[in-house]
Design goal:
The radius of gyration is 16 Å and the shape is globular. By secondary structure, the protein is of the alpha/beta class. The longest helix has 17 residues. It contains six helices and six strands. β3, α1 and β4 form a beta-alpha-beta unit. α3 packs across α4. It has a six-stranded mixed sheet with strand order 1-2-4-3-5-6, sandwiched between helices. The protein is about 35% helix and about 20% strand.
Length: about 170
């Protein structure tokens, strides 16, 4: 609805996890990690275009951690997340150019290998832009034991001159 993009999401300030530095695609990436280290499954979140330090992402991670899952939330944007402000929609095409899916898929591949190397099953959860990224991860053949895709922003594929139907067929 008109004006809805400028409404702030509820704040979450009671994060239970820790921030670690993970090497993904040769870069040091701030990563939120929460949940028992001996869990048999790790859930990797691929969030939307906004920061892992805002809104409810850590709260959702903490919720799953309380169910005995280990949850990993890398900063896929490398500190360059979108800011929810008036006019932010017009900035998205340029931002997408700075964060090509191929780069994020490589980061995801490294993250998945690290988690799988710990002997854990891997599930992924994508939100909006993150769902689009996970479709590309699946197309690239990255192994996941489960994948939940919420609110897919397949229009991102179309915004870049490709057809999202082709991505879904892959």
């Amino acid at each position: 609805p008109e004006g809805s993009h400028v409404l702030p999401a509820s704040a979450y300030t009671d994060a239970k996890g820790v921030l670690e530095m993970w090497t993904l695609d040769g870069k040091q990436i701030e990563t939120y990690v929460v949940g028992p280290a001996d869990s048999k499954m790790t859930v990797v979140f691929v969030g939307d275009i906004f920061s892992i330090h805002k809104n409810r992402v850590k709260g959702l991670a903490d919720f799953l951690a309380a169910k005995n899952y280990r949850v990993v939330v890398p900063d896929w944007h490398k500190g360059d997340s979108m800011v929810l402000e008036p006019g932010f929609m017009e900035k998205i095409p340029a931002w997408l150019g700075e964060h090509p899916f191929s780069e994020v898929v490589k980061m995801a591949e490294d993250c998945f290998k690290q988690v799988s190397g710990e002997g854990k099953k891997l599930a992924t959860v994508g939100f909006c832009w993150g769902t689009w990224i996970l479709y590309h991860c699946q197309k690239a053949g990255l192994g996941m034991d489960g994948c939940v895709c919420l609110h897919p922003s397949l229009v991102v594929e179309d915004m870049q001159g490709r057809n999202h139907s082709d991505l879904l067929k892959a």
